[in-house]
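Budget justification aside, the reviewers requested a transparent look at the raw inputs and outputs of the sequence design task funded under Objective 1. We therefore reproduce one unedited record. The lines immediately below are the structure tokens for a 111-residue chain.
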């Protein structure tokens, strides 16, 4: 006659439960295979998108810096022109009068 103690039976039951748990874990991991592949694909696309965003941001930064430099240069040039005009209002008025007179003379000769 073979006798089993309660402790032996509990060990066998726990061993059977552990084997069933391992089999179920393997099935779950196997079913996650396609999910992990699609997740890897999504992560690759996300990485590419983030690198594109980084490149666009760098180009925008460069464009902003160049635009700021151009605006600063244009403002300095306009300031120089305004200083010149303020200093030579009489000369500019005289030149305008000469141009108007020539325009009137040309209109007279065209008739």
């Amino acid at each position: 006659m073979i006798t089993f103690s309660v402790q032996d039976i509990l060990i066998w039951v726990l061993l059977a439960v552990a084997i069933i748990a391992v089999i179920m874990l393997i099935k779950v991991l196997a079913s996650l295979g396609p999910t992990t592949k699609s997740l890897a694909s999504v992560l690759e696309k996300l990485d590419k998108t983030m690198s594109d965003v980084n490149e666009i941001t760098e180009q925008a930064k460069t464009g902003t810096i160049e635009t700021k430099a151009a605006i600063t240069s244009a403002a300095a040039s306009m300031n120089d022109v305004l200083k010149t005009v303020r200093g030579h209002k009489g000369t500019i008025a005289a030149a305008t009068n000469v141009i108007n007179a020539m325009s009137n003379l040309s209109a007279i000769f065209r008739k």
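The CA atoms of residues 64 and 70 lie 10 Å apart. Residues 33-87 form the longest helix (55 residues). Computational costs for records of this kind are itemized in the attached budget.
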